[in-house]
Amino acid sequence: MSLKPLFLVACCCGVMSSLAFAQPGRDKDPLSWDRNIHGLLQRYCFRCHSSNSPKGDVDLAQDVDPRLILEHRSVWETAASLIESKEMPPEKAKQPSDEERALLVKFLNETLNSLDCAALQEPGPPTLRRLNRTEYDNSVLDLTGLDLKLGENFPPDPSGFGFDNIGDVLTLSPVQVEQYHTAARTIVRELIDSPQKNPAAYQLVLFEQPGEKRAERDVAKNVISRFATRAYRRPVEPATVDRLLVIYDKAREQQQSHDQAVGHMLTAVLISPHFLMRLERNQPEASDPYPVDDFELATRLSYFLWSRPPDDTLLKLAAERRLSDEKVLEEQTRRMLADPRSAALVDNFFGQWLGLRDVASHQPDKKLFPEFDESLRQAMQSEVNRLIAEIVQQGRPLTELVDSSYTYLNGPLSKLYGIDGVSGEQMQRVELKSRQRGGILTSAAVLMAQADPGRTNVPRRGNYVADRILGTPPPPPPPVIPPLEDAGKGSGKTLTLRELLEIHRRNPECASCHAKIDPLGFSLENYDAIGRWREQESGQPINASGELPGGRKFSGPVELKDILLEQKHAFARNLAKNMLIYALGRGLHAEDECVIRAAVSAAEQNEDKLSELIVSIVKSVPFRYRRNAEL
Predict the structure, then answer these.
(1) Is there a single domain that holds both residue 501 and residue 403?
(2) Is the domain of 76 the same as that of 194?
(3) Is the keyword Signal in the record (predicted)?
C-alpha cells in the first residue's frame, strides 16, 4: 500500500480535462489521448475535477498541455498515485477496470517522466536575499566577536514556503533600515567606547593601532579594508575604501579621536546593503545562465549549511578561484557538514521543516502533567537536535530520522520514557532496546508539539506524518469545525478519543480526510500529550490500530515505522524538495524536479546517506548558477 498524496479527497483525481494535444501516429495506441485516455477521464473523473465543480479545490481543466502538467507536477503526481492505489475514484463512484486504471497511471507517469534533465540546465530567477535575524546575529558574531543577539529585537522574519530565509518575503523597509542603524551604533559602541569590556572583540576589529611608523590614516585604511572585506564577504573595492575614508577624515576634522572616527566607518559598513543583503553581480553580456563567482558561491554555501558568513577556509579558496571546482566544492560541503557549526542546519532547516521550533512555545496542561517543567522541555528539544545533528555530521542515513536505534537522553527524559540506566542532567547517547523510541516521530518533542495541552490530537499527529514525512498534506479543513467534545454529547458516557472521532467522521465533509490521516495518528495513541507511553485511556485499553485507504491494516508505532520505511523514497523526495527551497531561498519551478531526482538518487545509491543528498543539491545548477535579473 502506498501512502500517497492526500489532498484530492472528494472524487476521482481528474487528469487532463483539456489536454487534447495531437498525437500523430498514435491513433491505435491505447495510450493515445484522443482515442482512449481522454474518454476514460471524462467517464471517471471530470465530473468532480473540472472548472464547474472542482472538488477538493482541484481544477485540472486549466492545464491544457504537457508543459503545464510538468509545471503543476505535484497535482499530477497525486492523481497518478491515488488512481494507482485505488483511493480514487471514491468507493461509491463508478470504477474503472484494472486495465483502464493501469492505462491512466501509465499515461500520467510517462508524461511526468518526460522531463529531459540533460537539456534543462536552468537556475531559475535570481533571488535578492536579506539576512534574516539568525543570519544577522551570526554574521555580527563572526565579524566582531560580539554575541549581542540584536536580531532578537527586530520584527519576526516573515516566512514563505515554510521557511524564514525566502528572498521574496525578506523585504527591507525604512523602519528596518532605522533598526539596523541603531543596531550598528550599538555594536560600534561596544567595540570602541569600552575596549577593556570586550578586549578580544576590540583586537579582532581594530587589530592595528597607530604608532611612530604607522600613520593614523594608514591604519584606518587597513582596518576598514579588512573589516569591509569580511563584512561584504568578498574583497572590497578600492573606491569603496576611499569613500569610507572620507567619513574618517571628516570625523578627525571635527576633533574626534582615531577610534571614534574608525567607528563611524564601521557603522557605515554595518548598514551597507553589501552587508545586510546577499548581493550577487549581474553579467550584462550574458544571455544564458552563468556560474556565480567563487565568493558568491562561498556565501551561498555558508549561509545554507551554517546560517553565517564564509569562514577563512572558504574565503581563501574563493580568492584562489578553486571553490567552483566541483571536487573542491564537494570536499568543502562535507567538511562543513562535519563541523559543529552545521548545528545551524538542524536549528534552521530541520527546526522549521519538522516543526521543532514549536516545542519552545507549547504549554501542556500543568494540572494534568505536573511533572512537566522547563528543564524537561529543554531535554526534549535537545534529544531531537542531537539526533539530527548526528545524522547530519556523521553522514548517517536519512531513514534514521524516522527510525533510529539510538537517541539522546538525560535522567528526567529517560524517566519519562521508562528507560533505565540514565541519570543526571547531562544528555547521553543511548542505544535503544525497543523501537517504541528512536527517530523524531516517537520523540517527546514531536509528540508533545503535535498534541493539545491536555490530550492527544489524532488528526494533528496523522497530518504531521502525512505532511512532514511523506509530503502529502490533506486539504485545509472546513472553516467552521465544531469542538470534538460535541460529538459525544448525549451519549451518557465518557467516550474515548477514537469513539469521538468515529462520531465526528460521520460528517461527509470530514470523513474523507480523516480516513487518511486518522489511522496514522491512531498508531501514536500509546503516547500521551507529553510523549509518555500509556496502555489505557479513560479506563479502556489503547487501540492503536488503523486501516489505510486501500486496505492496509497496521497497529502501533513500530508498524507505522515499517510502513514509512517502505515509503522512504517519498520521504527522501519530500526532504529534498524542502531542502532545495531552503538552500535556494525561493519556491520551486518545473526544472527543479531534475535537482530533486538527482538528490534522491544520490542518497539511494549511497546507503540513503543524508550527506549525499545535500552534496547533490550543492553541486546542482540552481545552486551554482544564476541568470541576470530581468529589467
Answers:
(1) yes
(2) no
(3) yes
Ordered alpha helix ranges (H), 54-132: 66-71, 73-84, 98-112
Do 381 and 528 belong to one domain?
yes
Q: Are residues 232 and 381 in the same domain?
A: no
Work out the pLDDT band at 505, boundaries 50, 70, 90: low
In a domain? residue 20: no
Q: How far apart are CA 432 and CA 407, in angstroms?
A: 7
pLDDT exceeds cutoff 90 at 557: yes
Gyration radius of the chain's alpha carbons: 28
Mean pLDDT of the chain: 88
**Closest Cα partner for 365 from 247, 492, 446, 455?**
455
Asked if 260 and 376 sit in the same domain, the reply is: no
Claim: this prediction has a pTM higher than 0.70 = yes
Cell numbers for 74: 505535484
pLDDT at 53: 64
pLDDT tens for residues 98-120? 898 888 888 888 877 777 777 77
Residues 104 and 188 in one domain: no
**Nearest CA to 399 among 349, 438, 429?**
438
Reported as a pLDDT band with limits 50, 70 and 90, residue 25 is very low
DSSP string, 423-458: -SSS-EEEE-SSTTS-SSTTSHHHHHHTS-SSS--H
Q: How many domains does the chain have?
A: 3
186 three-state secondary structure: helix
Helix, strand, coil shares of the chain as percentages rounded to 5? 50, 5, 45
Q: Position 229: which residue type?
A: T
- Does 570 reside within a domain? no
